[in-house]
Amino acid sequence: MLHGITTMASNGFEPLAKGTFILLRPCCTTPAGPATATGPALARAGVTCGDAGWVGQTMQCGWVVIVVALAKHGVSAYNPGTQITPKPNVLLDSASPRTCQPPHMKLLLARPLIALAIACALPCLAAVPPAEKLLPADTLLVLTIPDLDRALAAAKDFPIAQLWRDPAMKPFAEKFEQKLRELVGEQEKNFEKDWAEFKPLVSGQVSMAVLRGDWQGEAGSGPEVVAFLDVKDKGKQLHDFIERCEKRDIDAGKTIQRETVRGVKFARTVPKDGDDAPKKSQPYIGQSGSLLLLSESPKALEKILARQDGAGAGLDETPEFERARNTVGRDSHAFGWVNVKALAAVLGKMPAQSPDGGNPLGIAPGRIMDALGFGGLDGIVFAARQTPEGTQAELFVQAPQARRKGLLGLLAPEANEAGPSPMVAGDVAKFSRVRIDGQKAFQAVERIITDLNPQMAGIVTLMLENVGKDKDPNFDLRKQIIGNLGADFVTIQKAPRGKSVADLSSPPTLFLVGSPKPEALLQALLTINPLPPKEREFLGRKIYHLTPLPGMPSPGGKGGMSFSTTAGYLAVATDAGLLEEALRGEAQGKPLSAVPGLADAAQRVGGLNTGWFAYQNQSESLRILIETLKQDPDGVDKLFASPIPTPGAPMPSLQPLKNLMDFSLLPPFDAIAKYLGYSVQATAATPEGISFKSFTPIPSGLKK
Question: Which of 148, 162, 410, 629 has the fewest CB atoms within 10 Å of its CB?
């Protein structure tokens, strides 16, 4: 990129290093002083394509020569106030005081060529490489938005973004934003002003990464974190912004710690001695071209700058990363990748929590990774994109089939029909169907426990062998329960029937467990229950109702579970009415399969035959939630409370959330219903890994 372009040394200038070029700008010169090169800073100070226009301007007096030294990663910093004095008889003919002469003929001939070269080259100089080319090969994690302008342009039509801008949401949104500014302002008094100035600058790539560096898993050590942002053609504004912030810190008496990394200056503030405020670790901040770089580690910054220079191995040269990038496509608005293979190598070196043997269940992290199957992982990749039809997202687990075990084996469904049956109504809030062999899944869990800790596995086996023996000495849990599990698991959830927090916490839910012998499976479950069930008849079938033991939480939240069988399934429900709907065998009203657009949405995630399909109706889920929180804003505490008592481990306080969000200001649901629709998800196993895809169509109320 412009390497090899040299100066006109033969005309009297000192020879410059390979990779230099000249810009010629018209100006007036006088014997009274040297010519002054004024104009925007170049390259690291923010050169743009428009700067090439200097070359084609009409010359009336003379020429100022602006010399710019190039590096592989960009152009070195240039101070627009630098004065340059040409040597006698170099590019300017002899001139009497304040008298302009025509330019040298060679210069006139060179002007078009120089203009063309610079006009073609500057767009290349302005382009910042993608994150994988700037990051080193030892990257453990990367999260990137390749182009913020492009992502924001796509996101402005995102239904949730439109919802936030709706006038009906204005009271809630304005108060939330005000409280958020106040919260951040408590930590950083100048945040609001700085953010208002900084926000318009960021327009290109936004990336964050975790680098392994020297981390080997030792206690007290960790990986390196680095972030970099591209401001495109606003490098000069970014430079000025950094200088103003630094000057303000100096004026406030703060100590500035400086580092120079590969010729780039970095700085960070250091708390004053005796300062009672909590000591916060501050990152070094610096600018390289149009990139703003931040990291607490100068070593991490050095690696990014080295990659700008083209030195060292890059993440894009890592085979696992390239396979991941190609799997999810390169047109995403947001992208992330975890190098599980490298992370597992580090965790494998870490000891158990109790290396002295004081804890017989102490398990080393490496052993946990291997037992769960993560040792066979290459990586996990995520990508999201907004299209005119809706929002697409994919999570791909790079787990080759030959190395798939543990949890990864459980997550890989068998390719089979997973769509909703005619009995599933179109007004369901949630639906999922998973085609996983229940017996194989149980065996996989047993292997995981054994691999984690054989002693623990022995205890679990002993407990399972004694389940139900108090009622039937011949009872065999493995044979009568596990042996009767099939390969079809369905979950159906309806909207809450009431508007209380208790209703929201326990919406009507139905579980269908496929079984070759559903009646035998049901009787086995009744055998291991310590209390006798209540029985009743419905459409010729028996429904059994089990109540929990005193003091035990109920999954249904209303005092028990109802059991029955239907068409090859064991049916378990938290709501008797929902169970009765299932026993009728057909949906009341339009079935879920007839919901407009569902078939097309399903195809965007792989179809209904991948073995794992899910559906979520946001309208049904949020309608009652919004109405309930409007009436009882404090109900959010009860809504997120743990259903199981956890002595010594209380749930985190939700007061900060309540301080930010005044739920009483939410608009009526009907005012915002058009922004809410449904989403579908599917999981599929391939020889290369396991794919989790999601698609949220544009709601029908927003379609043009």
Answer: 162
Q: What is the DSSP letter of 264?
A: E
Helix pair 235-251, 191-198: axis angle to 10 deg: 160
Q: Which of 522, 606, 644 is nearest to 571 (CA)?
A: 522
Tell which residue, 335, 410, 347, has the closest CA to residue 130.
Answer: 335
Token reading at 537: 């008849």
Give residue 367's pLDDT.
86
Q: Is residue 384 within 8 Å of residue 332, measured between CB atoms?
A: yes
Sequence-distant (6+) residues with CB within 8 A of 288 are 44, 73, 74, 264, 305, 308
Give, for 144, the enclosing helix (H) or strand (E): strand 139-145
Residue 702 to residues 28, 160, 539, 676, Cα–Cα distance (Å):
60, 11, 43, 9
Orientation of helix 365-372 relative to helix 438-452, angle to 10°: 160
What span, in angstroms and rounded, lies between the C-alpha atoms of 54 and 462? 85
Are 614 and 431 a contacting pair, CB within 8 Å? Answer: yes
Q: Report the residue count for the chain.
A: 704
pLDDT by residue (tens digit) across 543-566? 999 887 665 555 555 568 999 999
Bridge-based pairing state of the strands 561-566 and 569-573 = antiparallel
pLDDT at 655: 73
Q: Residue 400: name the closest of 379, 418, 383 by CA.
A: 379
Residue 303 C-alpha from the chain's centroid = 23
Give the whole-angstrom CA distance, residue 45 versus residue 231: 11
Place of tokens 């040298």: 104
Report the distance separating Cα 113 and Cα 111, nearest Å. Answer: 6
Three-state DSSP at 658 gives: helix
Q: Give, in order, the Cα–Cα distances in Å from 524 to each of 148, 442, 548, 568.
A: 57, 17, 17, 16
Gap between the terminal Cα atoms of the chain: 46
Global pTM reads 0.78
Contact 585, 405 (CB under 8 A): no
Region for residue 220 given its phi and psi (left: phi exceeds 0; alpha: psi -120 to 50; beta: otherwise): left
Non-local CB neighbours of 137 within 8 Å, separated by 6+ positions: 312, 313, 314, 315, 317, 318
The answer to whether the beta carbons of residues 143 and 151 sit under 8 Å apart is no
Tokens of 308: 């700008």
Whose tokens are 């010359």? That residue is 59
In sequence order, what DSSP letters do the residues of 486-544 get, joined into one string? -S-EEEEEPPPSSSSHHHHHS--EEEEEE-SSHHHHHHHHHHH-SSPPEEEEETTEEEE
CB-facing half-sphere around the CA of 539: CA atoms within 13 A? 10
Domain residue extents for the chain: 9-126, 131-167+198-317
Contact 118, 52 (CB under 8 A): yes
Amino acid 616 reads Q
Q: Which two tokens stand for residue 228?
A: 């970099």
Could you give the 3-state DSSP secondary structure of residue 571? strand
> Strands 291-295 and 569-573: what pairing?
unpaired
Tell me which H or E stretch contains 230.
strand 224-230
CA distance 350 to 240: 46
Cα(453)–Cα(360) distance, integer angstroms: 9
What's the CA gap between 36 and 14, in Å, rounded? 19
Using an 8 Å Cβ cutoff, are 475 and 539 in contact? no
